[in-house]
Design brief:
20 helices; Growth Hormone, Chain: A; globular
Length: 426
């Protein structure tokens, strides 16, 4: 408790709170079409492939929005960029309420919802910017816990859609965005961490390194799996088990809540046993649970429990990966994290499409689960190969933080060397 009080006093907690709410509410908006997919599919008579594509559009659009929003924040500041984004989200939601009445317009609405998916890098950088290096990782973890917004969407949107109609949910969501905007306006302050202001070349520097792509591909599984499954599960539960639309949201909530809650635990465990060790266990568990989910399609109880275990693994994997990011890029953590997050989020579009195509072509969702399980297995093999070099250069055995690193041992982080530093931890 005393350590937490020291952490709170070391930075500006109102900004951290504003960042959490900003990320939480925007994340909820991002997955709104996924939460209401059973209603939308029924309204327009969509087939399995169309359902998968419809759910994937906001995910892909959100991933592509992360980079331009990050660049905008370099010019006008992170607080101002967040305010601009939330204002655009409200406009987009009002458009959905007034004008969406066809399948093509739902797809266009998915692109607008993607604006909300761009908040990741800005939220984490804004929230952690006031905190010293030894607490920056924890601050990023608290701000990043805003992915619990998925729970808000799948729990609240279906019953509201039943009572008022699914297009009205867009308007109600627009009203809720006023809360994080007010908190951001009155409570947040632009951080003084000038080192986070990067040139365009520095912003994308990690994509020119092997490690940058290794991290991004692993994040395709952990975060891409989280957002992809979270968006598609309401459709899966509704189609596979013939539960009500509200019950489909409630079952999805049980799974996504596990993923959000365990994220911080994943970082905590990784600090002690190493991010590589944690990620290795996570990827094995993800492979097993995905295959078992595909094989247990006759029991809603067993499937729900397996999804909860799968999401717990994915959440822990997200925490473990971001335990490693500050070790590899200690001087440009937020920038590297933003780019890794963008590539990883793009992977979230794979799952809904794989599930839809599997159902459309074979009459079963099994091969969609197997396809993603195979991808997770490939990332596990890659991790076990690259970790040999990682533990020889910038991390201890298993992916733990080094207590002190000299210039000779420190790799060139895009031109940002530190003569002697203590790596950040989450």
């Amino acid at each position: 408790m005393s350590d937490f009080k020291v952490f709170v006093r070391s930075g500006h907690w109102p900004t951290l709170l504003a960042s959490f709410l900003y990320f939480d509410f925007t994340f909820a908006i991002w997955v709104l079409n996924g939460a209401m997919a059973p209603f939308i599919s029924e309204a327009f008579g969509l087939d399995a492939a169309q359902k998968g594509f419809m759910v994937s559009v906001p995910i892909i659009a959100g991933a592509l929005m992360r980079f331009p929003l990050g660049v905008l924040s370099q010019y006008i500041g992170r607080k101002s960029a967040a305010m601009v984004e939330m204002a655009l989200i409200i406009v987009g939601l009002l458009y959905g309420f007034k004008f969406v009445d066809s399948h093509n317009e739902v797809l266009a609405m998915g692109v607008l919802l993607g604006i909300a998916g761009g908040s990741f890098g800005v939220a984490l950088s804004l929230g952690s910017g006031w905190y010293p290096p030894k607490y920056k990782g924890l601050a990023m973890g608290i701000a990043g816990a805003g992915n619990s917004g998925t729970v808000l969407a799948v729990l609240c949107a279906p019953p509201l859609a039943v009572k008022y109609g699914w297009t009205t949910v867009y308007a109600l969501a627009a009203v809720t965005m006023v809360l994080p905007m007010l908190v951001m306006w009155f409570c947040a302050k632009e951080p003084p961490d000038v080192e986070e202001h990067q040139s365009f070349r520095q912003h994308i520097s990690c994509l020119f390194e092997k490690d940058g792509w290794s991290f991004s591909l692993i994040y395709v599984i952990t975060f891409g799996g989280f957002i992809g499954l979270a968006s598609f599960l309401p459709t899966y539960f509704y189609d596979q088990f013939k539960v009500t639309k509200v019950e489909a949201g409630q079952l999805t909530m049980l799974a996504t809540l596990m993923g959000s809650a365990v994220r911080v635990l994943g970082g905590y465990v990784s600090d002690r046993v190493g991010g590589v060790n944690t990620l290795s266990s996570v990827l094995v568990l993800v492979c097993l649970t995905l295959v078992l989910c595909g094989l247990s399609g006759a029991s809603v109880s067993v499937t729900t429990l397996l999804f909860m275990l799968c999401f717990a693994a994915l959440g822990a994997g997200n925490g473990a990966l971001f335990q490693l990011v500050p070790l590899r890029w200690p001087m440009t953590t937020a920038v590297a994290g933003s780019m890794i997050g963008e590539i990883g989020a793009l992977g979230g579009g794979f799952i809904p499409n794989a599930m839809g195509q599997s159902k459309q072509l074979t009459g079963s969702y099994l091969w969609g689960f197997i396809a993603f399980a195979v991808l997770a297995a490939a990332m596990l093999i890659m991790l076990r190969v690259v970790q040999i070099r990682w533990t020889r250069t910038w991390a201890e055995k298993g992916g733990r933080a080094r207590t002190a690193v000299s210039v000779a041992d420190t790799p060139d982080y895009g031109g940002a060397r530190s003569p002697r530093h203590r790596p950040l931890q989450t």
